Amino acid sequence: MVELTVTQMGAAGDGIAPLPEGGSAFVSFTLPGERVAARVTGKDRAVMEGVLAASPDRVEPPCRHFTICGGCALQHWADAPYAEWKRGRLAEALSRAGYADPDVAPMVATPRAVRQRADLGLERLTDGRVEIGFHERGATHLVPMRECHVLLPSLVALLPALQDALRGLNALKRLGSAVINMLDTGPDILLRTDAPLTMADRKMLADFAGRAGIPRIAWAGKGAPAEVAAQVKPVRHLLSGITVSPPPGAFLQASAEGEAAIIAAVLAGLPKKMSPRARIADLYAGIGTLSFPLAARHVVQAYEGDPAAAEALRLAVNAAQASRVQPTRRDLVRQPLLPAELKNFATVVLDPPFAGAAEQVAQIARSALPHLIYVSCSPAALGRDAAMLREAGFGLVSATPVDQFLWSPHLESVVVFAR
């Protein structure tokens, strides 16, 4: 056992403390300035055994699963210093990219218990029961979910009935997952399991969907595309006034509040002077979360590589006769827009996956594009891509952090660049 003093927070939400013999260790569930008793478990890891001198910013975590569940890392930190730390993560990423003293706006907070999407683990126990929950921190075991202060209460309330129903699912032998999107028409469930779905499974899922008022339950095996296992009514979701039928497991913004904050920052980041005939490229458009609000201003060419998402966007555009959105299916990793194509746009809105958009940003750097709005869910990937933009002559216009992922180290941000 050693006594450690935490000096700063690491990128994953762990405290960092110097070790007596040199070097430093990451210590979970600690805060800057705290003195703790800890057990060193590796060359850069230690486990806190007790708080000897607590930070004044330490608060009581609201959830009984905290420290065990891997979903949250920072429930023990007061709101104001937590928000400033997250804002600092964006500032640090931009600074490392070469933007000295970046002007980062205050973090836009989202409330508790509003997250509309969950990716949960499934585990069949030796007695045949099925547990549903997030994985333990640093482990593969599940934490049986009894409460959650991040997810929508209606989503949490669905889990006991789903857990009971899945006990009879032949397709779940040992491990699986469940993606649940809370759409405007109700919960939309995608199950992934470790064995094929049987006819008895399909009947059971249809009966459960009817009883529980679940419009659709889809299923996918390992490496296979999703298919509808049971559907009792259409699935619909409204995006900026446009009705979309999302595919099973579709990517949605984590919360309606977070989505609204991102849209507001994107619209505010558009060039101040744009010709009425100017066009916008929306890259990684998904099912149209940003395309539709952008189309209220200008014509939008929406590019999406995922076949199911691209088709959902196309159908929504056709049904709404939203002619100012022009959807195009295109894999932007294998086939990024080239400089000759980018010259047709006044700005690009780029909302890539967690890994960023190195291939597309490289082409933007080579182009004459004057303006870019980058929506990021990874400060590290943003920093790497922003470094390419800075070298190509892009200046930083604005940076807005959005706390889509409450009590976690993950951060959404909207960053505007211009030459």
Automatic annotation (TrEMBL):
S-adenosyl-L-methionine binds at residues 253, 284, 304, 351. GO terms for biological process: methylation. InterPro entries: NA-bd_OB-fold, SAM-dependent_MTases_sf, TRAM_dom, U5_MeTrfase_fam. GO terms for molecular function: methyltransferase activity. Keywords: 4Fe-4S, Iron, Iron-sulfur, Metal-binding, Methyltransferase, S-adenosyl-L-methionine, Transferase. Residues 1-54 form the TRAM domain. Gene3D superfamilies: 2.40.50.1070, Nucleic acid-binding proteins, Vaccinia Virus protein VP39. The active site is at 377 (nucleophile). It holds the Pfam family tRNA_U5-meth_tr. Belongs to the class I-like SAM-binding methyltransferase superfamily. RNA M5U methyltransferase family. This is RsmD family RNA methyltransferase.
